[in-house]
Design a protein that fits this description.
268 residues, alpha/beta, Carbamate kinase, two-stranded antiparallel ribbon, 9 helices
């Protein structure tokens, strides 16, 4: 009997070997018009009503203007507490990632309740494929920023803390959706040469490439270093914007696509 096969560029290669499998990779932009933004845990949510409510007002206003938004939340001080205790107990990185993931989930539920009267809806990561439906219905989807690696998180050399935390999860969500820019709402005007809370002489960086930022190897970064690395070879999300949530007008400008705060961009 004649043997029949299905032609495929992957049919005769080892899936672990380096190099192109025979076709150019051009990922589809699933929902490129969605603006993905993160509410910082320690920098914003932990500060309570006074800091959070003005930012939520700007988000609601943007949604009423027709902007498509995905709101993600960070963990903050409570997540750091979990990582500290877990590290002292010498728990594996995957356990720390699983435990730390519950804190931004709690924050997402609180933000959703505050936005409920404006269409706020809490979505699990398993519901991510329903995002298009929620936005078409006029909802304001809110989800945790923590990526679902949990027990399968890998450990970085010299640390037990999960390398993929909420900044990474938010960026990966933006990259999958095809968003060109990802907005991080922190408690500083953007990126500085050092922690401005500790060093009054720290200089504000308005715009810098991810490649240059990696080369400069700053002692303090307002974003997870893994996110900067990913930006250098992303296919869709080419810019990270960092703005100050304690200045609602800056958040408003960012949601209107203005280059405020700091822009970190990919040269590729």
């Amino acid at each position: 009997m004649e043997r029949k096969t299905i032609d495929s560029p992957l049919a005769n290669i080892n899936m672990s070997e380096a190099g192109s499998p025979g076709f150019e990779y051009k990922p589809v932009s699933v929902m490129p018009d969605v603006k993905v933004l993160k509410l910082g845990g320690q920098s914003l949510l932990d500060r309570g009503r006074k800091a959070l409510f003005p930012v939520l007002d700007e988000i609601v206003s943007a949604r009423k203007r027709g902007e498509q938004l995905l709101v993600c939340t960070g963990g903050g001080t409570r997540a750091r507490h979990v990582y500290s205790i877990g590290s002292e107990l010498e728990l594996p990185t995957g356990v720390l990632a699983a435990m730390g993931g519950y804190v931004p989930m709690q924050n997402a539920r609180m933000v959703q309740m505050l936005l409920a009267k404006h269409g706020g809806i809490y979505i699990l990561q398993d519901d991510f494929e329903k995002l298009a439906l929620y936005i078409q219905l006029g909802c304001l989807p809110v989800m945790t920023g923590m990526p679902p690696f949990a027990y399968w998180e890998k450990r970085e050399k010299g640390s037990r803390i999960p390398p993929h935390r909420t900044d990474a999860g938010v960026f990966l969500s933006a990259e999958f959706l095809g968003a060109k820019r990802c907005i991080f709402i922190k408690d500083e005007d953007g990126l500085f040469t050092n922690d401005p809370k500790k060093d009054p002489k720290a200089e504000h960086i308005e715009r810098i490439s991810a490649q240059e930022l990696i080369e400069r190897d700053l002692a303090d970064l307002v974003l997870e270093r893994r996110v900067i690395e990913y930006l250098t070879y992303s296919k869709s999300c080419k810019e990270l914007q960092i703005v100050n949530g304690l200045k609602p007008d800056m958040v408003r400008a960012a949601l209107a696509d203005e280059d405020v705060g700091t822009i970190i961009y990919s040269e590729t």
